[in-house]
TrEMBL record, chain A:
Organism: Cochleicola gelatinilyticus
Protein's cellular compartments: Cytoplasm
Family from the record: Belongs to the AccA family.
GO BP, sorted A to Z: fatty acid biosynthetic process; malonyl-CoA biosynthetic process
UniProt name for this protein: Acetyl-coenzyme A carboxylase carboxyl transferase subunit alpha
Catalytic activity: N(6)-carboxybiotinyl-L-lysyl-[protein] + acetyl-CoA = N(6)-biotinyl-L-lysyl-[protein] + malonyl-CoA
Automatic annotation (TrEMBL), chain B:
Record HAMAP family: AcetylCoA_CT_beta
Lineage: Bacteria, Pseudomonadati, Bacteroidota, Flavobacteriia, Flavobacteriales
GO biological process, one term: fatty acid biosynthetic process
Descriptive protein name: Acetyl-coenzyme A carboxylase carboxyl transferase subunit beta
Organism, as annotated: Cochleicola gelatinilyticus
The EC number(s) this enzyme carries: 2.1.3.15
Ranges of residues in domain CoA carboxyltransferase N-terminal: 24-289
Gene designation per UniProt: accD
Pathway(s) of this molecule: Lipid metabolism; malonyl-CoA biosynthesis; malonyl-CoA from acetyl-CoA: step 1/1
PANTHER family given in the database record: ACETYL-COENZYME A CARBOXYLASE CARBOXYL TRANSFERASE SUBUNIT BETA, CHLOROPLASTIC
Length: 317, 289
């Protein structure tokens, strides 16, 4: 398990705890009390640290190398029923954007999401979760197919941004994202969006327009990453903590601004510390939201969705 | 004269006197693996050593996909006319007759309806052995009628393409089958009935430029050639050497035109899994991929 800098006190206690238990096993010394004490302290420290996370710390958690990614969620939620579908029918199969059909319980869903890698090789293969235009077009193709057969859509958002490459521009990265956004505003089936990691700007919104937008507790969603914001506005990468603070990019900030609908709580220590627990709460949240949405007529569904997005923005006069 | 002494040179046996080895005792795959044909059949006509997917026809695909090989064949009687009285090195009518005699088929596609994993499925399967699986009026009409049957009875459609393209001997009549089949698929799409396109080795020319690429999902088998202009034409036209694996199913998957490639063994499971998922039905079988 990898620990972030602010998690070091937890690491220390965890190590102490393990050592104490080991001594207990290997010798006759009774360490039950010591163990209990350390465990108690460990839990308190955890609670303390995770209760008072700064926005930047949440950004770090959202990028934690052990954090579950889109396919982890899909496989956990659907098991054997998932059938991955590929291709944009135009140029390429984008490995940074995955999708396919699967069941949660008895209900079929079309899943779409950005996929990151878990080691150097797979990170490159997945292009660090940065989709190209063909990725957005693949996502749209799958969503349209879902609409045709009246299958609800679930989007998992986890991207540091759409890929800012030369060829991506040539093939119309902007157009691809724009097309997705407009089509998602009027898609005639329920769309449930879950931000599971990073929600960076247009790259996230390109699969992020939905009837219900959920954010996991330790994720971020904004118009730019704190680092890039710092480099542009402070003219240095050093001010990322301040930028993270200023952007109001955490789940609770986003909820307060009414830009998302719901926060999904993570286990103590973040999504990666208890994966099955995280998967379960995400599955429950999706099923619960779908239950409400499925009874709406396509017309009402689209109307409500359009209304919701029409109301976003703050101004005077 | 000694019995082993040959008086006449060369091979003297006339072609018609040559004895055929009972056909298909053994099969040799392109990489040189030899497999007993019975074993091949049991392995879904896939060479077990190198995974080579042997070209098979409608008979075998029906066997693989329909439960207990039970199905009702549709429009069995349709056969080609020779509207242009076409002659190349041979008269079209003669070519048709020869193909019919050789293959026992009426034309390059057979259509049927039956149960696959207990649910109705309409399958149109092309036969490459009949004039290169070429699409003329009969192929177009049979596919159109199969689509009509799907539409009328609300049964999903699977088209198994295996074709060199449009049939030259019916010229523009063949060409228009691209449009005709597409019309039917548009009607099917309008009615929201799933259509699966399975592109098998080889799927080229007019078929790729119409129904083969228009599935709700397009799928293929490992190593299948799927192309518009075949590799020889591309090489000759451009004068360029073609990259390894050009126009294979894997190439198409990478370039975004296929949803997935399935080993023939898993075909029935995967097709039915897709249908259960997209139609939001209870799953009939879990797939082991």
């Amino acid at each position: 398990m990898e620990y972030l800098e602010f998690e070091l006190p937890i690491k220390e206690l965890q190590e102490q705890y393990e050592k104490a238990c080991q001594i207990g096993e290997e010798s006759d010394v009774d360490v039950t009390n010591t163990c209990k004490q350390i465990e108690k302290k460990l839990n308190e420290t955890k609670k303390d640290i995770y209760k008072n996370l700064t926005p930047w710390q949440r950004v770090q958690l959202s990028r934690h190398p052990d954090r579950p990614y889109t396919m982890d969620y899909i496989n956990a939620l659907c098991g054997d029923s998932f059938l991955e579908l590929h291709g944009d029918r135009n140029f390429k199969d984008d490995k940074a954007m995955v999708g396919g059909l699967g069941k949660i319980g008895d209900q079929s869903y079309m899943f779409v999401g950005q996929q990151k890698g878990f080691n150097t090789k797979t990170r490159q293969y997945r292009n660090f979760g940065m989709a190209n235009p063909e990725g957005y077009r693949k996502a749209l193709r799958l969503m349209r197919s879902a609409e045709k057969f009246n299958v609800p859509v679930v989007c998992f958002v986890d991207t540091p941004g759409a890929y800012p490459g030369l060829e991506a521009e040539e093939r119309g990265q902007g157009e691809a994202i724009a097309r997705n956004i407009i089509e998602m505003t009027r898609l005639k089936v329920p769309i449930i969006v879950v931000i599971i990691g990073e929600g960076a700007s247009g790259g996230a919104l390109g699969i992020g327009v939905g009837d219900r937008v959920l954010m996991l507790e330790n994720t971020w969603y904004s118009v730019i990453s704190p680092e890039s914001c710092s480099s542009i506005l402070w003219r240095s990468w050093e001010f990322k903590e301040q930028a993270a603070e200023a952007l109001k990019l955490t789940a609770s900030d986003m909820k307060k601004q009414k830009l998302i609908d719901l926060i999904v709580k993570e286990p103590l220590g973040g999504a990666h510390s208890d994966r099955p627990g995280t998967f379960k709460s995400v599955a429950n949240a999706i099923e619960k939201e779908y239950k409400v949405l499925k009874d709406l007529s396509p017309k009402d569904l689209v109307e409500k969705r359009m209304e919701k997005y029409s109301e976003m923005g703050v101004f005077k006069g | 004269m000694a019995w082993f002494k040959r008086t006449k040179k060369g091979i003297q046996t006339a072609t018609e006197d040559k004895k055929d080895v009972p056909k298909g005792l053994w099969y040799k795959s392109p990489t040189g693996k030899i497999v007993d044909s019975e074993e091949l059949e049991q392995n879904f006509y896939v060479s077990p050593e190198d995974g080579y997917h042997v070209r098979i026809g409608s008979k075998e695909y029906f066997e693989i996909l329909f439960d207990n090989n039970k199905f009702k064949e549709l429009d069995k009687g349709l056969t080609s006319k020779d509207p242009l009285t076409f002659t190349d090195t041979k008269k079209y009518t003669e070519r048709l007759k020869a193909a019919q005699d050789k293959t026992g088929l009426k034309d390059a596609v057979r259509t049927a309806v039956g149960k696959s994993m207990g649910e109705d499925l309409v399958i149109a399967c092309m036969d490459f052995s009949f004039i290169g699986g070429s699409m003329g009026s009969v192929v177009g009409e049979k596919i159109a009628r199969a689509a009509d049957y799907s539409l009328k009875n609300k049964i999903p459609l699977l088209i198994i393409s295996k074709s060199g393209g449009a049939r030259m001997m019916e010229a523009a009549l063949s060409l228009m089958q691209l449009a005709k089949t597409s019309v039917k698929l548009a009607q099917l799409a309008e009615a929201k009935i799933p259509y699966i396109s399975l592109c098998t080795d080889p799927t080229t020319g007019g078929t790729t430029a119409s129904f083969a690429m228009l599935g709700d999902i397009n799928i293929s088998e490992p190593g299948a050639l799927v192309a518009f202009a075949g590799p020889r034409v591309v090489r000759d036209t451009t004068g360029k050497e073609l990259p390894e694996g050009f126009q294979t199913a894997e190439f198409l998957l990478e370039h975004g035109f296929l949803d997935f490639i399935s080993h023939r063994r898993n075909l029935k499971d995967k097709v039915n899994l897709y249908l259960d998922l997209v139609l939001n039905r209870p799953l009939r079988n879990k797939v082991a991929s």
